[in-house]
Amino acid sequence: MWFPYFKGQPTDYIIRYSSGRLRGEGQAKAFYYWRYNTQVVAVPTQSQDVSFVFNELSADHQQVTIQGQATFRISEPKRAAQLFNFSVDPLTQTPLSDDREKVGRRVANLVQVATRGEIGTRPLEKALGDAPVLAAAVSGELGSGGMLAEMGVEILSVEFLSVRPTPEVAKALEAELRESLLRRADIAVYARRAATIDEERSIREKELASDKALEEQRKGMIELVGANSLREAENAAAARAIQADADADAERKKLAVYAGLESKLLLAHAMRELADNAGSIGNLTITSELLASLLNDHGRPAAG
After folding, report:
1. What domain range is 299 assigned to?
2. Can you give the pTM of this predicted structure?
3. What 3-state class would DSSP assign to 275?
């Protein structure tokens, strides 16, 4: 085959040289060529990923291990073709050099340089917690810098998958964090206990207030019952006194009827009363001596 056919990939920018002279270029270009004097350059324009792991020092001189991935693409194939060898075998399209991998390594080196500048301004703890911020800062710095533009490369994204300290420092940080968490747990337990004590005190105060109110009510009831009893006794005593006065007055009025009678008439009336009530008297003995004595005492005045 003196004039084989070459068909470029859709993602490759093809540059064709014949005897050292540019004969044509374009995206996914296809052509017949003379195999003995034709050179083909295939610049990949698709996005590519490069992984990286490197160690840097923080602002407080602590070693930090950074692992991540950068995504880039060759945005200016002609400029990149001037700096790197993207020649391929026209028949097999096999790369004739390892410059394709060199692009990825240079991008990783530039990422490391930009990351070093960002890590060096942050202490360890801040660097460990600012992985997304660091990635965004590095991506912005690479996008605005001139090194990638001179290579014809465009950075698409930078991601930091992990930012770790040394194992010894990690253990110390874990111990400090563990102690901090335990202190926070203790504070929470103490706060819960204090809240429980406050609730119990509030409940006891309410119970005491309720008991006090009940005792106040009971005291008022006792005082009311005592006052009522005292008033009842006073009223009863006053009633008895009034009744006694009434009885005495009645007796005085009753006896006043007999006040002007002679003693013999009074004695006769008394005997008559005894006779009228003889049915209720069990036994009554009146001797002649007693009757004479009554008559003598009441019938005439005493001697002298």
Report:
1. 262-277+285-304
2. 0.56
3. helix
